[in-house]
Write a structure and sequence with these properties.
This protein has 179 residues and is mainly α. The protein is built from seven helices and two strands. It has a single domain, classed as Arp2/3 complex 21 kDa subunit ARPC3 (Orthogonal Bundle), CATH 1.10.1760.20. The protein has a two-stranded antiparallel ribbon with strand order 1-2. The longest helix is centred in the last third of the chain and has 29 residues. Keywords: Membrane, Signal, Transmembrane, Transmembrane helix. It comes from Lacrimispora saccharolytica (strain ATCC 35040 / DSM 2544 / NRCC 2533 / WM1) (Clostridium saccharolyticum).
């Protein structure tokens, strides 16, 4: 196994753990069996730092682990899929949208596009899941909570990403993910 692949696996495991921790630390229950947390910021960061595929694995697994450890076992399978899609969308948009700058530097417009894409995946994914499991009023009632959660997560990711991209290993990993 080459050195870069080992680093990517290690950082993916670290991001999964940070995603689970960020999801569990600030934990505000919402209307229907869900909760507001900052873990989506880590999901978005996972996609942007690690690339769409490794980021999807880290974000999905970390979020699912938080559900399992917090007693939201029913949501865990949906969370794995939804958060993996959110990290994939965010990572893909951030790394592939053309904008001034180069891989390894903070790029504001691709960041906002990534945040919006990730938010659409989370809000839409949970809406569809809750629509299938509960009913229309229950699914609609959680949309505002998901939007608030996405806003705070976008702010957290926006504060952390420029700082994290100053770390040489993460900057190089980000550059390699873009290619």
């Amino acid at each position: 196994m080459n050195k870069n692949r080992t680093k990517k696996i290690v950082f993916s495991a670290l991001m999964a753990a940070l995603t689970a921790a960020a999801t569990m630390v600030i934990h505000i229950p919402s209307a229907f069996s869900g909760y507001i947390h900052l873990g989506d910021g880590m999901v978005l960061l996972s996609g942007m730092l690690l690339g769409p595929v490794a980021g999807a694995a880290a974000g999905g697994i970390g979020s699912m682990m938080a559900d399992l450890l917090s007693g939201y076992v029913f949501y865990a399978p949906a969370t794995l899929i939804i958060k993996a899609l959110a990290a994939f969308a965010g990572g893909y948009l951030y790394l592939h949208l053309p904008f001034k700058g180069h891989g390894g530097s903070f790029r504001p417009l691709p960041f906002l596009a990534a945040g919006i894409g990730s938010s659409i995946a989370v809000t839409g994914g949970y809406f569809l899941f809750e629509l299938a499991v509960y009913d229309w009023p229950a699914a609609v009632s959680n949309v505002p909570f998901n939007l608030v959660q996405n806003l705070f997560s976008l702010i957290a990711a926006g504060v952390l990403l420029p700082v994290l991209l100053r770390v040489r290993e993460l900057r190089e990993l980000n550059r390699n993910s873009a290619s």
